[in-house]
Amino acid sequence: xxxxxxxxxxxxxxxxxxxxxxxxxxxxxxxxxxxxxxxxxxxxxxxxxxxxxxxxxxxxxxxxxxxxxxxxxxxxxxxxxxxxxxxxxxxxxxxxxxxxxxxxxxxxxxxxxxxxxxxxxxxxxxxxxxxxxxxxxxxxxxxxxxxxxxxxxxxxxxxxxxxxxxxxxxxxxxxxxxxxx
Length: 181
Known about the structure:
This protein is 27% helix and 16% strand. By secondary structure, it is of the alpha+beta class. The strands form two sheets. The chain has a four-stranded antiparallel beta sheet, with helices on one face. The protein has a three-stranded antiparallel beta sheet with strand order 6-5-7, covered by helices on one side. The radius of gyration is 21 Å and the shape is globular. The N and C termini lie far apart (68 Å). Mean pLDDT is 83; it is low at 1-16.
């Protein structure tokens, strides 16, 4: 019995760490993990999170994927997180690119800029090249930071309210039929 236990421990200690999964090209079938909407219909950079099982989870906004990664409730092992490189050739806000993915741990992010992502919330804009990130920050405001420097507040900032939102909401509530008991 002791030999069997020892053999199992030795095998477990010799296991190599699994290699990172390669990023997956963005296709018309890709939908956002939270919104379940087609990602190609939304502007701005996207993200994909690879867990230790199943296909990757896609996110309509980079900040949503980073928030997902930091959630205390997130219990599945994350093997890799990729984001669109907005400095890649041909990348634009309307079409960030289907295959220009970079790992978040090597990316630079522009935070606190005037850029809003695919769901209308403030966005973290990823780059692989510092000069491209600094040029974006000079045009749109914000700071260039590494993943470790991204503050939780950057991931949770609310979307700016569109003009008329409050009035529209109050009008909608007023049209609801009163509850009858």
